[in-house]
Design a protein that fits this description.
Blueprint lengths: L49 E5 L8 H14 L4 E5 L5 H5 L11 H6 L4 H4 L1 E2 L5 E4 L5 H7 L9 H6 L8 E5 L6 H9 L2 E7 L8 H14 L5 E8 L6 H14 L12 H5 L7 H4 L4 H16 L14 E4 L5 E5 L4
Parallel strand pairs: 1-5, 1-6, 2-4, 2-5, 6-7
Antiparallel strand pairs: 3-4, 8-9
Helix pairs in contact: 1-12
The chain binds adenosine-5'-triphosphate (ATP) and magnesium ion (MG).
Amino acid sequence: MFHVEHSLRCSTWNIPPADSARLKPRPAMSEATEPILETTPEAPLSPQTKVIAIVNQKGGVGKTTTAINLAAALALEGLKTLLIDVDPQANTTGGLGFARDEERLSAYDLLLGHATAAEVIVPTEVEGLFLVPGTKNMIGANVELVSAERREHRLRDALEPIRADYPFILLDCPPALDLLTLNSLVAADTLLVPMQAEYFALEGISELMATLDRVAGSFNPGLTLEGVLLTMFDDRTNLSQQVRDNLQGFFADRLFTATIPRNIRLAEAPSHGKPVALYDPRSRGAEAYRSLALELMERNGHPTEKPTRPEPTFAVLDSIGEKKGIWPFRK
Ligand SMILES: Nc1ncnc2c1ncn2[C@@H]1O[C@H](COP(=O)(O)OP(=O)(O)OP(=O)(O)O)[C@@H](O)[C@H]1O
Ligand SMILES: [Mg+2]
């Protein structure tokens, strides 16, 4: 049986203990019956801007794949979306077809206060999807920010002037609990945690939750969990099913119903500089991220029905220009 030990270790940031129990620790996953969070049961009545940090300190769990493809799916559903690459690996930036160009303005300039958000945002190939590019310079930002004023609030402050322009702002975090991730957690309203359905993936989740609890208590009292997302999921294996059942008991409605299957198209798309919805819109990966986008929209009070367009009609003319009917022909 899977067992997740709760740990309150958080030496990385020397954060004082949380004064709120917003993110409740659980003694053991197998005993858990309630959701880990004291969540507001109802979705907001009216849509509002939501900043979502995509976070998991474990590497390679699908954070960047989720950031790119969820953001693109939201934009394709008609919601203007901003994606911020907070990771020095800049994989989100590369995956959307941008060179990892260190001369260009980036999230580094935003964090260091060299440029405003409006100056660093670039449009992407997907209509309605905008990007703040990342750069490997951001490794230095971790050090440069240590002595900076309001070092944990840099990103939050920088986003303030533009946040109302986007229904969703997604932050792709690095696989570390460093100052870049901390800035993301402070800027965020909620967290989306991608996880692989494997035994070892469960081990870090309690530590992550404890850390998030402390961040919430110390810097961002409004921070809640948007949801946990199973990635690279294979529902044919017993292990996957077991992991899902355990997470369901642990996170209850905070486990997304949508799961992301292992799909080669998702792995190929970044090398073509495209989200999967453009690279192969019929793939299982594209479908899965669209389902996730719709679930997120529903939870947040955004209508998911696109206004139905009238069926296109064309006048069909015969060779001498006489009107013969309207296509598609009706019985
Ligand atoms: N559903 C999937 N199906 C197939 N391959 C996937 C899937 N999700 C992610 N991958 C692949 O797994 C690798 C890791 O994914 P990704 O870069 O999204 O993880 P990450 O959590 O952002 O990693 P890091 O912690 O290094 O930032 C990549 O090669 C990606 O293409
Ligand atoms: Mg990544």
